[in-house]
Amino acid sequence: MAPNSPATTNTAAPSTTVLAMQPVAARDSLWRRMLGNTGLMTGIVVVLVIFVVSYVLPPLLHLDPYAVDPANRLAPPSAAHPFGTDNFGRDLFARIVSGASTSLLVGFVVALVSGVLGAIIGIAAVFNSVLDQVLMRICDGLMAIPAILLAVALTAALGPSVTNLVIALTIVYTPGIARLVRSRALAVTSETFVTASTMQGAGMLHLMWRHILPNTLSVLVVQSTFTFAESVITEAAMSFLGAGVPAPQASWGNILYDGKSVLMQAPQMILITSGFLIVTVLALNLIGDGLRDLVDQRSRSLVGKPGVFARMAAVVTPGRFRQEVKR
Amino acid sequence: MLRFIFRRLLSLLPVLFVVSVVIFSLIHLTPGDPARAILGQNATNEQVAALRESMGLDRPLVEQYLGWVGGVLTGDFGDSYFLRKSVTEAIGDNAVPTIQLAVIAIIVAIVLSVPFGTLAARFRGGRLDRSVMGFTLIGMTVPSFVLALALMVVFGLMLRWLPISGYVNPFEDFAGGIRTLIMPGIALGAITAALITRTTRAAVLDVLNADYIDAARSRGVAEGRLLFSHTLKNASLPVLTIIGLSLGGLVTGAAVTETIFNIPGLGQLLVTSIARRDYPVIQGVILFVTLIYLLTNLLIDLLYGIVDPRVRVGKA
User: How far apart are CA B23 and CA A110, in angstroms?
Assistant: First the structure.
C-alpha cells in the first residue's frame, strides 16, 4: 500500500512506530531508586534504629526490664528514669526498649515464616488443580475468621508463650499471602516464557524455582512487609487483651495493658508506648509502600525528584548526583 | 438473580466446613488433656474423668465433631462451664453492646469517609486532598485501641466530657447510651474510615475520568449533583466491597475496644472465657463473629447484583 493512499477504514490506527523509535530510557539502578524514595528510606532507617537500640542498649546501660522498685511506683519522668516508672516501679524506658525487641522479633519471624509458607502453598497450588482446590478452600476458611480472634483463640489453646504466639499469627497470616502468591503465579504460568521452558523439557521444580518464584518475589516481599506491620499491631492488641505475650515479659501490648489500669496516675505510660508503636508501624508501612513503588512497573517513572536521602548520598558520592541532575 | 444467590450460597459451604473444623479443633490443640487443663492440677482423677465424659472427649474425634456441628446447626452451642447458662444465651446477652458499637462505628466511618474521599478525589492534589490523605495514612497506622486510649485521656480525663467506662443500653436510655458508646464508636470508626476514604477516593477518581461524566457536565448537570449523585453512584461498588470487608475487622475491633471501656460485650466474654478456658464459649463467640462476617459479605455480594446488573450476568 502506498504511504499516502486514502484510509480504507474509518479509524486511523495509532502509529506505534514512533513510540518504538524512542530511545529506551536508561534504567536507574535499584540502589538509586531506593535512595530517591524518601518514604522507603525513612522507614528503613527508623526500623533499623529501633532494632539496633533494642539489642544494643540493654547490655550497654545495664537496663533491666524486670527490676522492681516498689518505693518508686508510677514516678514521673526524671533523670534516673527518663520515661518514669510503671505500677510495679519498673523503669519504663527499659521496658519499652525490651518490648521493642519482643514486638519486632515476633513481627519479623511471623512475616518471614508466613512469607515462606505462603510462597510454597501459593506456588504449589498452581501446579495441581486438586491441590489448588483443597488449599484455597482452607485458606478461604481461615481468612473468614477475624484475625485477632483466631490468633487469640489459637494462642489460648496452645498455651501462652512467645513461640505459640508466633505460631498462631503465622497460621492467621499465611493464607492471605498464599492467595496473593497464587494469583500472581497463575498469571506468570500463562506467560510465553514458561511455555517455552516447558517445551524445552524443564521439570516442575525447575519451573517453580527459576521462573515462577522470581516473578512472584516482588508481591511476596511487599506483602510480607505489610504482614510485619500487621503482626506488630495484632501482637500489641493481643497482649493488651491479656492473651498475648505472658505477663512478666515486656511487650508494647503488655505495657499498654499495665498502663490502662493506671491511666489516671500515669498517662505517660500509655502515651509514650503508643508513640513507639505508632512510629514503628508507620515506618513499616512506609517500607511496604516504598517497596511496592519500587517493584511496580507503572509507578517507576514517578520516582524522579531526589529526596532527602538521595541528596544525603550525593554529599558522599558527588559524581552520582550530577548525573541525576543532568537527566 | 435466584441462580446468582444460589451459587453464592453454595460457595459458602466449603468455607463454613473449614471454619467449623478449625474452631472445633481449638479444644484439641491444647497440649495434654483439655479436661485436666480446665480443672487445674488439684482436681482428682475422678473429676477429670467425669468432665471428659461430659465434654464427650472419650468418644472418637469424628463423632465429637459431628455432634458439635449438629448442635450448632440446631442453634445449640453447648453449655458454658462457668456461667451457668448456655453459650447461646451468653452470646445473646453479650452480642447486643458489641453490635451496637459496631453499628455506631460503621456510621461514623461512612459519614467521615464517603464525603471526604469524594471531595479529595474532586480536588485531587489540592490542600484538602493532601490533608485527607495524610489523615488516612495516620488512620491506617494507629490501631483502634490506641486511638481509644488517646481519646480516653483527652475527653475522659482532661476535659471530662464523657464517661471513660461503663455501658448503658441506648434502647433504654438513648442519650445515656450514646454518651457511653460514642467514644469507642469514634475510635473504631475513625480507624475504619481511613481505608474506606482511600478506596472512595480511588473509585471516584476512576469514574470522574469516564466519558459519561463529561457528557452529564455538558448537559448542564450541577457540579454538586454530578459529584454526589452521578459519580458516587457509579463508584459505589468498590466502596461497598471495602465496607463489607471492614465489617469483620469492625466487629473484632469492637471486641477489643469494648474491653478498654468495660462494655460487657463479646470481647469481654471472650477474654474472660479464655482466662477460664471455657472452650464452648470461646468456640461459640468465634463462630458467631465469623458467621456475622460471612453473612454481611454475602449480603453485600447480593447488593452488588442490585446495584450493578453486570454482576448478575457475569461469572461472579
Answer: 22
